[in-house]
Design a protein that fits this description.
Largest sheet: 7 strands, mixed
Structural class: mainly beta
Strand content: 25-35%
Number of strands: 7
Order of helices and strands: EHHEEEEEE
Number of domains: 1
InterPro entries: DUF4839 (IPR032290)
Number of helices: 2
Radius of gyration: 18 Å
CATH class: Mainly Beta
Pfam families: DUF4839
Shape: globular
Protein name: DUF4839 domain-containing protein
Organism: Arcanobacterium phocisimile
Strand order of the largest sheet: 1-5-2-3-4-7-6
Length: about 160
């Protein structure tokens, strides 16, 4: 069973004004494109990225530059998690995560790593019982492409 995780999905207004008869058309500024969330099913580049066997592959950096600030969604797993630590304190409600594409396998991993640092369960929008989240869980993740740290081999 996959846990749903939504890292960067703004809340939407779900109110329904039944007395309004005039449809409202949402408009975007001309310089902003409306783009769908990328998934392995609708974007072959993301599908290939998630299957790479080399975390130093130059296509990862190319993907990051091309799709910077774009939302992506894919099946993943929690490969590492630990309490967030600052120089003087260990936080009990803040976490560092390493997310790996695909189902959890302690002996093998494909695609780039995704690092989530200093996160709480509420900021991750995790559905269900937060105490049940653990290393090895398979999840569905939605995130915004920010940057790729090639020396550390993970997206942040």
């Amino acid at each position: 069973m996959k846990k749903e995780t939504d890292l960067d999905n703004p809340p939407t207004d779900k109110s329904n004004d039944s007395q309004s008869e005039t449809p409202v058309e949402e408009t975007q500024p001309k310089d902003q494109e409306t783009t769908a969330t990328l998934t392995p099913e609708n974007n072959p580049e993301l599908a290939n990225l998630l299957q790479l066997g080399n975390e130093f592959d130059p296509s990862i950096t190319s993907f990051e530059k091309k799709y910077h600030n774009q939302n992506i969604e894919f099946d993943a797993s929690i490969c590492f998690m630990d309490h967030y630590r600052s120089s003087s304190k260990v936080y009990k409600t803040r976490w560092d995560f390493l997310i790996c594409p695909g189902d959890y396998d302690p002996d093998s991993q494909r695609g780039p790593n995704f690092k989530l640092k200093n996160q709480s369960f509420s900021t991750l929008n995790i559905e269900g019982n937060h105490e049940s989240v653990k290393l090895g869980d398979n999840i569905r993740i939605t995130a915004r492409v920010d940057s790729y740290e090639q020396k550390a081999v993970f997206f942040i």
